[in-house]
Design a protein that fits this description.
Shape: extended
Distance between the termini: 46 Å
Helix content: over 70%
Strand content: under 5%
Structural class: mainly alpha
Order of helices and strands: HHH
Radius of gyration: 19 Å
């Protein structure tokens, strides 16, 4: 963002956000596809179900933009981001790390 002047700042923010979302979607897709593939041993089914998940996120974002564009302001987004961050921290520290420690101590 430091390379952008004032007029380009919003475009730089959008580009950075798009890159961040794209990078986030790669491990998310893997985390959906791998368990399905190992459970079914069917690549096409894993790809199909992962694609449905990705498309549903896209449609959810578009519908949210259409219906909530004039309702949600900066304060609402800040609250939603804080709630989301809290949920992600709880999942990471309260569940995933605890589960990984249980699995490694069983071996």
């Amino acid at each position: 963002l430091h390379l952008c002047d004032r007029r380009q700042r919003q475009m730089c923010i959008r580009a950075a956000l798009s890159i961040g979302i794209a990078l986030h979607n790669i491990p998310e897709g893997i985390s959906i596809a791998v368990p399905i593939f190992h459970a079914t041993n069917n690549r096409k089914k894993a790809f199909f179900l992962t694609s449905i998940s990705a498309i549903s996120e896209l449609f959810g974002g578009i519908l949210s933009l259409i219906f909530f564009k004039n309702i949600i302001g900066r304060a609402h987004l800040g609250i939603l981001y804080a709630i989301t961050a809290g949920i992600m921290l709880q999942i990471s520290f309260g569940e995933l790390i605890k589960e990984s420690l249980l699995i490694t101590t069983k071996k």
